Amino acid sequence: MTVWFEKQRHLIDFTLASLIRRKGRNLGLLFVYTLLVFVLASVMLYTHALRHEAAVILEGSPEVLLQRLVAGRHDLIPPGYIERIGTVRGVQQIRGRLWGYYYDSVVKANYTFMVPEDGSVAKGTLVVGPALERERGLARDNGISFRAYSGQLFSFTVAAVLPQASELASADLILMNEGDFRAFFAYPAGHYTDVALSVANPKEVRNVANKLANLLPDSRPILREEVQRTYASVFDWREGIMLALLSAAILAFSILAWEKASGLSADEKREIGILKAIGWETGDVIRMKLWEGGLISLTAFLVGFVAAYLHVFRAGSPLFEPVLKGWAVLYPRFDLVPVIDGLQVATLFFFTVFPYMAAVLVPIWRAAVTDPDAVMRA
Amino acid sequence: MIELRDVKKAFNQGQHNEYWALSGISLTIEARRVTALRGPSGSGKTTLLTLIGCLARPTSGRVSLHGRDISGLPERFLTEIRRKTFGFVFQQFNLIKGLSAMENVMLPAYPTGRPHRELKQRAEALLDRLRLAHRRDARVEWLSGGEQQRVAIARALINDPEVLIADEPTANLDTALAKEFMAILESFGEEGRTVILTSHDPLVVESAAVNRVVDMRDGLIVEP
Amino acid sequence: MSARPSTLAFLLLGSLLAAFAACFTDAVWLRAERGPELVSMRLLAAQLGLSDLALFTEARYTRHPAQADLHSGFQDHPLALEHFPSGSLMVPRYDGLVREATTPD
Ligand SMILES: Nc1ncnc2c1ncn2[C@@H]1O[C@H](COP(=O)(O)OP(=O)(O)OP(=O)(O)O)[C@@H](O)[C@H]1O
Ligand SMILES: [Mg+2]
Description:
Chain A is of the alpha+beta class. In chain A, about 55% of the residues lie in helices and about 15% in strands.
């Protein structure tokens, strides 16, 4: 055991001494390798945590949302509609939602106006999302006016700002009183934007949705699980874009690494011959090479992963914002809850460490066929 | 100790450029003596050394070490015998560039898994004995020819081999260094090591350190 | 003589492994710290009936991807093309595209 260990240490000593001889090249390779792991791991950690975040937050969203469609487009819920929904068995709570969009040309941003149905916002006041606080410099008791789509100017005072911790869900929200909302958007009385409902038995959700669709052929029920699936796929393809962008870099690196690891220069070939002549077995040469590949790839993986972790969860992923935020003006600032998928990490490990080790091993057959007596005639 | 019986070696056998470098050598090399192989260029001296040193296998004939036939052993066992029994000093020295003298000396012992401390002490002792202690941390490519040769000798001795094989050890040395080498050689004989070397250099072959000279020509041994 | 290269390598790998492990303990710690924020957002979603995250606010179908009725560009924000892969790769030509959704204040 100690002999085995001592032997491996000797092999490591040798392989490191050899690596140090070509310091520039090897350090360069290590750097690029680490950078690649860093970007891959960052994308992975970021999207996975965001998916988790969406899944948890949306657990709170309504079980079924019912839109009414007119000519294939989202339209208002007319009076009487909600009562008819109430006749469907299994439907527990029904509430008409009032919300809409508003484009603020001052900061060139879109806001989401919404009426909380508990009536917690008093007439003439607003509760605004944290991004508005930041972008429009709003604070409690400030006044603000918006020009409605009708051209009329409405003035409000800010009653409160939603907590910064909820920014991922509420960055662009403006909560207002129902009366103000209807007046601002000239919303016809008794009409709603859409309907949120809950179902008594969670297993019945799909059934209830079918019944609703039959009862109200112009409606489109949206299930919470569909919403959650939508989010999962949104981040999947955002991740996909990043990976697609990266694939060229990955390919270039693979070629470089393959070249470096598997190419056996005349010098190296001679060295292996010498080692074999002075009593190293082919197996010793292979082990030595494995250590080389293992040390380089493991270092790259660990450094890359740790840096990615710090980047995503401690520094707020500054490198991804431009890619992930699109053209939005009100981009939420949020700290992701670090949820790390062990399987993903293992996959990343596998795909970064093993190909490199394999590339290092390729020249071995050449080492094996190098006759030790070739050394005698240099 | 080493016995060769009707040993033949062909290169590229069965191809149009087939070449018989050794065409029937029978020779017994006694233990604890210095044996020199002498002969014109191309007479097969180096080839013979590779067979004796288990670097290659004969095409036909037998090589036995301590009465054990080693000519048919698989590569793995040959490597083991090579490491335990033989130390090599190559004509070109074949040191590994970029490593220090010390590291080069320790290299053949790495696969044995001997403790680092012990190895270092032994390597230091060897370099000391060859008056190279002051250069032990220098990279080998900065060393002079004679220094490189002494590093190569130290490397050959690190595993404490019974047999030292040296191919044209003085070819790159001037007279003074060659004489120095012969002095080292003499001490090996006194130590009881078996030394087999090749040379055209009369200084070597005729020196008192050499106990026996074997003459070769065209892959055969010529009786004097 | 300085330390053996293998000693240095073991030290380096050891500390890297420790840092790797530290990421996971730090994650546990941060989960405990930030978990309540997540719960409060779920509560807010339940209270207001929110169906989407406020991640991409440039257009209706990116603000509420779950409820959008069509995925066409230029819906709300003048620079919003669309949120499909091509849109993320192309930068819009700003000059020709600027238009206001409402009359400015
Ligand atoms: N791998 C090989 N393939 C073909 N021919 C070879 C090979 N190795 C050696 N030979 C030939 O075998 C013959 C003997 O070579 P060897 O190296 O043993 O000679 P030598 O006596 O050591 O010569 P020198 O004194 O010049 O070193 C030479 O003619 C050489 O060309
Ligand atoms: Mg020769």
